[in-house]
């Protein structure tokens, strides 16, 4: 049988949304089974909410290779010396102990959507009734000339949390006096739109204290970037003369690197670099492609419940999804996961399904106690997740407000990680 | 022209003799002084005023909330000030009507002046002891005599806690379910009315904070009631 998963109700009619009866599973197994691939902001949140709110009525398995998950959000603050790496690490014990989630530390290597099974690198095959994919990002091969994953130790991307982030910080700290830190910024769309520019701020903060004659050189293929006026104001105020961004109009998109010689060439001009952060073009985490739910680099989804446009029993969350107006961020993934969890639970147990509401806020730190933010609310339309309303920090804000914004970002970090892992 | 530091009597006389040229009076300061007697157990104003249970109120117009040096404000007032709450005729009017609409968990334990004229009179009285021209009430004629308080029917809505639980998931990205408050306040176990009043103050944008104005802005009355009902019950 098939439930009408497109049930989409007006807010006033929320109380009428209870489905008439729990779903009877076609093959007669005891409990409905949900498999979640990826234990980040989308996957951990979805697994937690489905398990917590169904109170044991759904078997939830979470597949995540890492035993300790290091968040990519706030990793720039580690680069800036505001956080230690342990502050960013989280484990899955509470999801297993408190919510009964079967946490499997393994790689998902294939999805058979006809048989409704997931294959693991360790050899197991897991059946599912509903599959949630939240694999984050992978990189587009060949998007930066001269760079490949094989070069990620010489020129780290540091765009997945953990060892890459630690490596980049070590390289920044080892830079010779007056050396050049280069960054290749990614083309749209990519994870965390303000991320590269917050990173520039945090690297500048470190260099200003320890290596003040060093320079930061950025090749950016885009004509403009997130929170641009706020970052440019902050760089002029705190790091005057240190940051040089070569944008699209000056050839920032024409870039190549040599990870052996440690050089970067922008619009034909070669520069020797002491450290180089290459953030390549991005695509959905590879398992989404293997599951056959991608179209191009990303996985299109229905805005009402985050289900794949290719398969109503597969949901795609977070960075990997192509959903419309929301930026690819941990906050967005967490928000989408709750809409998805509500829909999955409704489909499998007949619990009430409420209308989709989405939101996002991205905080960035420019210097000590100088925080800024941008955010928006979103709704589901037939075509996409569409922006409803938004705000952004203003240039020239007073120091108290900027400090309150930074403190708020720390509160958000505590909040979202509790919402994922507690 | 009003000189700071003059005595209450002289100050009153200055206003009673006629408002500044080109400005309309916002209320009757003499009547306001009478009404202010119920504030006096906590607040002083005028020459020699000092902080007591509450801060003294000289120079209140134009000051940021929680910004008077030397007074030990509640966390809520400090937060309101950092969020950008400035005491103007409009915000003071809202605050006097119901303190908790602008500052949740304020220690100002006062149920509010419900009559708009009473508030205007008190503000006219307090205004004698402030002299920041940019924040003179005369500059804000539209702010006078408006009731901001929430209709009784809205306060009477019985929230649906199950819907509130779903909606709460959006709040819990930042506000922690266990009531921990690190840079972002706790919102659990509030009296439902306080919750509803605060959310409507964000929705109407009289209470500052861009994220909360945006979040509250798209919640309808039933949804706010549902959230209040749910968060009331969280342990």
Main beta sheet strand tally, sense and closure of chain B: none
Helical/strand content category of chain A: alpha/beta
Q: Which band does the percent of strand residues of chain A land in?
A: 25-35%
Uncertain segments of chain A are: 1-22
Report the strand count of chain A. Answer: 24
Largest sheet, strands/sense/barrel of chain A: 5 strands, parallel
Largest interface: A-B, 41 and 36 residues
Number of helices of chain B: 11
CATH architecture of the largest domain in chain A: 3-Layer(bba) Sandwich
Instruction: Report the C-alpha radius of gyration of chain B, rounded.
Output: 19 Å
For this structure, what is the CATH homologous superfamily of the largest domain in chain B? Answer: Cytochrome c-like domain
* Helical residues, percent of chain B: 40-55%
Q: CATH fold name of the largest domain in chain B, please? A: Cytochrome Bc1 Complex, Chain D, domain 2
CATH class of the largest domain in chain B: Mainly Alpha
Unreliable sequence segments of chain B: 1-23, 139-143
Task: Describe this protein with a few key phrases.
heterodimer; A: 422 residues; alpha/beta; FAD/NAD(P)-binding domain; 2 domains; five-stranded parallel sheet; four-stranded parallel sheet; 24 strands; 26% strand; disordered N terminus; B: 235 residues; mainly alpha; Cytochrome Bc1 Complex, Chain D, domain 2; 0% strand; globular
Describe the overall structure.
The complex is a heterodimer of chains A (422) and B (235). With 422 residues, chain A is of the alpha/beta class. Helix content of chain A is 26%, strand content 26%. Chain A has 9 helices and 24 strands. Chain A has helices spanning 43-54, 75-79, 93-99, 163-173, 195-210, 228-238, 286-290, 330-349, 399-421; strands at 33-37, 59-63, 68-70, 89-91, 102-104, 108-112, 117-120, 125-127, 130-133, 137-139, 180-184, 215-219, 243-246, 255-258, 263-266, 269-272, 275-278, 282-284, 299-300, 314-316, 321-322, 357-367, 370-380, 385-392. In chain A, the strands form 8 sheets. Chain A has a 5-stranded parallel beta sheet with strand order 5-2-1-9-20. A 4-stranded parallel beta sheet of chain A has the order 13-12-11-17, with helices on one face. A 3-stranded antiparallel beta sheet of chain A has the order 6-7-8, with no helix packed on it. In chain A, strand 22 and strand 23 (370-380) form a beta hairpin. Chain A is globular and about 65 Å long. The model of chain A is unreliable at 1-22 (pLDDT under 50). Chain B folds into 2 domains: 8-143, Orthogonal Bundle (Cytochrome Bc1 Complex, Chain D, domain 2), CATH 1.10.760; 152-233, Orthogonal Bundle (Cytochrome Bc1 Complex, Chain D, domain 2), CATH 1.10.760.10. Chain B has helices spanning 8-16, 29-36, 75-83, 89-97, 99-102, 116-126, 152-156, 161-171, 192-203, 210-217, 221-233. Chain B is globular and about 55 Å long. In chain B, helix 4 (89-97) crosses helix 6 (116-126). Helices cover 42% and strands 0% of the residues of chain B. Chain B contains 11 helices and no strands. Classes of the chains: A alpha/beta (422), B mainly alpha (235).
């Amino acid at each position: 049988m098939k439930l009408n998963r497109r049930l989409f109700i007006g807010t006033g009619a929320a109380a009428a949304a209870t489905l008439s009866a729990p779903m009877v599973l076609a093959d007669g197994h005891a409990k409905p089974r949900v498999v979640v691939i990826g234990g980040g902001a989308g996957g951990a949140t979805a697994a937690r909410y489905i398990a917590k709110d169904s109170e044991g009525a759904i078997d939830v398995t979470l597949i995540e290779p890492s035993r300790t998950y290091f968040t990519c959000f706030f990793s720039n603050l580690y680069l800036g010396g505001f956080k230690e790496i342990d502050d960013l690490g989280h484990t899955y014990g509470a999801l297993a102990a408190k919510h009964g989630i079967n946490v499997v530390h393994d790689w998902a290597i294939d999805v058979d959507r006809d048989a409704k099974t997931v294959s693991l690198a360790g050899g197991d095959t897991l059946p599912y009734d509903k599959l949630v994919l939240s694999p984050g990002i992978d990189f587009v091969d060949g998007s930066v000339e001269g760079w490949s994953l094989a070069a990620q130790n010489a020129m780290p991307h540091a765009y997945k949390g953990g060892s890459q982030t630690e490596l980049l910080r070590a390289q920044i700290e080892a830079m010779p006096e007056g050396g050049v830190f280069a960054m290749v910024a990614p083309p749209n769309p990519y994870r965390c739109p303000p991320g590269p520019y917050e990173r520039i701020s945090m690297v500048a903060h470190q260099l200003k204290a320890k290596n003040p004659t060093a320079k930061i050189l950025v090749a950016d293929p885009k004509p403009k970037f997130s929170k641009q006026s706020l970052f440019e104001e902050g760089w002029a105020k705190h790091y005057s003369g240190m940051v040089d961004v070569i944008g699209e109009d000056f050839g920032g998109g024409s870039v190549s690197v040599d990870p052996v010689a440690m050089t970067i060439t922008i619009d034909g001009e070669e520069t020797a670099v002491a450290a180089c952060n290459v953030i390549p073009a991005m695509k959905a985490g590879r398992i989404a492609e293997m599951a056959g739910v991608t179209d191009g680099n990303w996985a299109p989804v229905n805005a009402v419940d985050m289900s794949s446009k290719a398969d109503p029993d597969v949901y795609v969350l977070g960075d990997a999804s192509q959903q419309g107006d929301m930026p690819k961020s941990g906050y967005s993934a967490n928000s989408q996961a709750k809409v998805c969890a509500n829909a999955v639970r409704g489909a499998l147990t007949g619990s009430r399904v409420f209308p989709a509401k989405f939101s996002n806020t991205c905080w960035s730190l420019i210097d000590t106690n100088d925080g800024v933010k941008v955010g928006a609310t979103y709704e589901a339309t037939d075509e996409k997740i569409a922006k409803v309303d938004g705000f952004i920090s203003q240039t020239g804000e007073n120091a108290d407000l900027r400090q309150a914004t930074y403190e708020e970002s720390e509160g958000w970090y505590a909040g979202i990680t509790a919402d994922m892992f507690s | 022209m009003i000189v700071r530091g003059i005595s209450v009597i002289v100050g009153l006389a200055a206003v009673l003799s006629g408002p500044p040229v080109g400005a309309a009076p916002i209320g009757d300061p003499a009547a306001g002084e009478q009404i202010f007697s119920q504030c006096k157990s906590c607040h002083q104003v005028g020459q020699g005023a000092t902080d007591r249970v509450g801060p003294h109120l000289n120079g209140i117009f134009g000051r940021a909330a929680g910004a008077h040096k030397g007074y030990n404000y509640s966390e809520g007032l400090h937060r309101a000030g950092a969020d950008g709450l400035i005491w103007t005729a409009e915000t003071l009017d809202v605050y006097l009507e119901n303190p908790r609409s602008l500052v949740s968990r304020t220690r100002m334990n006062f149920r509010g002046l419900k009559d708009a004229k009473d508030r205007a009179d008190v503000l006219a009285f307090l205004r004698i002891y402030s002299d920041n021209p940019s924040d003179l009430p005369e500059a804000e004629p539209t702010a006078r005599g408006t009731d901001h308080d929430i209709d009784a029917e809205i306060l009477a809505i019985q929230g649906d806690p199950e819907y509130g639980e779903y909606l709460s998931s959006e709040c819990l990205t930042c506000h922690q379910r266990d009531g921990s408050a690190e840079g972002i306040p706790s919102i659990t176990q509030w009296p439902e009315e306080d919750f509803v009043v605060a959310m409507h103050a964000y929705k109407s944008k009289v209470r500052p904070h861009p994220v909360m104005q945006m979040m509250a802005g798209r919640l309808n009355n039933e949804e706010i009631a549902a959230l209040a009902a749910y968060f009331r019950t969280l342990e």
